[in-house]
Amino acid sequence: MRQLCALLRRPLLGACCALGLNALAVEPQQVRFASLDGTDLIGWLYRPAGAAVPRASVVALHGCGGLYATVGGRKGQINARHQAMAELLVEQGYAVLMPDSLTPRGVEQICTQHLRERKIDQRERRRDALAALAWVAAQHWGRPERIAVLGWSHGASAVLASTDAAQPEVAARELRVKLAIAFYPGCSAALKSGYQPNTQLLVLIGEKDDWTAPAPCIALGKGVNAEVQVYPDSYHGFDDPRGTVRLRTDVLNGVHPGRGVHVGPNPQARALAYARVMERLAQAFP
Questions:
Q1: FRET partner for 22 with CA separation of 20 to 30 A, picked from 28, 63, 176, 241?
Q2: 203 near 227, Cβ under 8 Å?
């Protein structure tokens, strides 16, 4: 923990214990709103205590495993990764909305499903994200010009899908986020489809990621002038505040289909990534 905190030397991140390790114990409020496809969605809203109007708002999109912990003491609650980011953002004055794209559709997770068998894909995730952004913008505290979108894995791909000006659903909407942040997205589809970001994009990915490979993201970043941070000796889920690197043989997709994928934390990479996220948000919302 001391090593992790030492990496966050900037005053902006002085409360290094806001890394989801029970420093703030921020409790979210449940909200509901409709996706663009009509699905009644659940969202979890975190707001800074004592702030009538937050510094800005961040819509955060979960990965294929959903929002909730499935084992351990947090089972059924927002999992450690999402809670860590929420607490870090709230500490800096941001409101955070985390929409649940799976549970309202009767699904717990889609990680172990083959890509072609998934009934919840980027069309649904894009529509959920756009609806969540619109919900935030409509709140009395949700200034439309001060909203960012952030996501992990499948949710990071949804970040790309919901900021792609080449998509008619995106192009038709007036609301544009100020910054898009994607932790280890799958970039191959966006690269092939001619992704055209309507905002600034930051991609954070592990050098050894064998679930969503870094090479397509590096190529995408060069093509659209986005910042792509690649962290050495890091796998998928490198920002998880708990656990160890392990091989998941139940995941059928990945760089080597059928051979499983590696997932797990790299504390140094997590600290550096969190610091970069906070820097970019501070630049976007001075």
A1: 63
A2: yes
Alpha carbon 256 to chain centroid, angstroms: 24
**The CATH number of domain 2-284 is 3.40.50.1820:** yes
Q: Tell me which amino acid residue 118 is.
A: R
197/39 Cα distance (integer angstroms): 26
Q: Which residues contact 236 (CB under 8 A, 6 or more apart)?
A: 153, 184, 206, 209, 210, 211, 212, 261, 262, 263
CA–CA dist 226, 220 (Å, integer): 8
Q: What is the pTM of this model?
A: 0.91
E-strand stretches of 1-74: 29-34, 40-46, 57-61
E-only strand ranges, 56-176: 57-61, 95-100, 147-152
Q: How far is CA 210 from CA 80, 190, 205, in A?
A: 22, 18, 11
H runs (alpha helix) in 153-265: 154-162, 168-171, 188-193, 214-224
d(CA 54, CA 165): 28
